[in-house]
Amino acid sequence: MAKVGIVMGSDSDMPVMAQAADILEKLGVDYEMTVISAHREPDIFFQYAKSLEEKGVKVVIAGAGKAAHLPGMCAALFPMPVIGIPMKTSDLGGVDSLYSIVQMPSGIPVATVAIGGGTNAGILAAKILATSDDQLLERLKHYSESLKNDVVKKAERLDEIGYKEYLAQMKK
Questions:
Q1: How far is it, in rounded angstroms, from Cα 105 to Cα 117?
Q2: How far is CA 68 from the centre of its chain?
């Protein structure tokens, strides 16, 4: 099965990147995960990014904060899709990361999810892979159906107990 490469510039990004790994596991998608700094260890980063294709990686999910060069550098070196996850930062709340990732020059695209959007990055990676994997596509359809069913159950529960009790239960 095709793999997804998950890379982050700092282990402080792990809680968000773990969301991507968790959804990929749930969908049965193989992945590898690592921490590499494009700024602090550029030689190691270049070697990593250039080796992904021969390792069978088909999509990269790259998370980064502040200047957020990691996703763009992955896209510059890796010939297949790269999904960037901007990290929330204490300085500018992640807007700096978002702009750094989404404003790539023409010819070097990075698909970008919301600030801290690890789950959506994992789902998007799976959807990209599902264009050539019918079994994965079926698992994605089942996942989407389960999301719909969860909302329907919540609406039914709200109708049953009213919004005040529903809110009280949410706070528990």
A1: 22
A2: 15
